[in-house]
């Protein structure tokens, strides 16, 4: 879902890392915390969009895909982070799960 609408601008410069998934106490919600990682500040701005509009769309689309997989409603917390040239750094690739 994170790549929808940005394929031409960020073809391979994006990674998504799920940091935590935990059921919420006294609720049927599952909290999912994820980072969207890009290589440059300009790419971060593209992902976030004007006033956060693109990130909100990404979150909504991702939630629609995650909820059937988990069989529960999901609270999705997305954060966009910059990791300079992560694709060329073996340590960063490892941290990102590659």
Describe, in plain words, how this protein is organized in 3D.
The chain is α+β, with helices and mostly antiparallel strands. The chain has helices at residues 41-48, 53-70, 90-95, and strands at residues 14-23, 30-38, 74-82. It contains three helices and three strands. Strands 1-2-3 form a three-stranded mixed beta sheet, covered by helices on one side. A hairpin with a 6-residue loop joins strand 1 and strand 2 (30-38). The longest helix is centred in the middle third of the chain and has 18 residues, at 53-70.
Averaged pLDDT: 89
In the CATH hierarchy, the architecture is 2-Layer Sandwich
Form type: globular
**Low confidence ranges:** none
Radius of gyration: 14 Å
Q: What is the level 1 CATH name?
A: Alpha Beta
Give the full name of the CATH homologous superfamily: K homology (KH) domain
Strand content: 25-35%
Helix- and strand-based class? Answer: alpha+beta
Following the backbone from N to C, one meets helices and strands in this order, namely EEHHEH
The neighbouring-strand order within the major sheet is: 1-2-3
